[in-house]
Amino acid sequence: MRQLRVSDRDVLTIEDLNTQYERRNLHRCKSGPKEGKSTMNFVEHVGDHFRSGQINNYPQPVALNLGLVYTVKLNDKKTNLIWLPFEYTGLVYKDMGLQTNVYPYYRGAILEEVELSRGTDLHKPQTEEAFIKTLYMKSWEIHQLLQLEKYAALQGNVPDFLTKMLYITDWLRYYNSVKAVGKGIHIG
Fold first, then answer.
1. Which has the closest alpha carbon to 161: 185, 180, 182, 136?
2. What is the pLDDT of residues 56-96, one digit of tens each?
3. Which helix (H) or strand (E) holds 17?
4. Cis link prior to 59 (omega < 30° from 0)?
5. CA–CA separation, 188 vs 183, rounded Å?
6. DSSP letters along 98-165, please?
7. Helix H segments across 32-87?
8. Other CB atoms within 10 Å distance of the CB of residue 94
9. Whether this model's pTM surpasses 0.90
């Protein structure tokens, strides 16, 4: 049994640490969101920032998080693209008024035939795991689309698409975990 010496009097085992960790997470799960605050969907969090104007990406592309991804609002002012630099693969956020639909963006083409998240769908992916599952479930549809003459010029394949979408998922995890820090107290 591995032990961790905290001080001369206290010795913790790995089991004690795991129990404390489980209790802390159980407390967080039971408490849920604070009154008046809603939990944000994993994929739609950045879409909410487009809608509220926190991300100003019109008319020129903007680098987010020191160039990890780029974003631009198209001329229709309802469609926002997020893509990996030099890959032209990412997500399309289409604002439909009170809802946002999310489509894949692959090698410079918007694949509107495949919806990754539909605004009113009760079964849309809410978590990172559900989003990755949706990507893999929709990969057969994407494979069939890439075989069509319309998308033949892309010369794409599903393993390439999935690899790049996992990079986008990593970025979404990072973006969703960042906390905004307000102004500090100015003394002087």
1. 136
2. 999 899 999 989 999 999 999 999 999 999 889 999 999 98
3. helix 14-31
4. yes
5. 15
6. S-EEEEEEETTEE-TTS-SB-TT-TTS--SHHHHHHHHHHHHHHHHHHHHSGGGGGG---HHHHHHHH
7. 44-52
8. 19
9. no
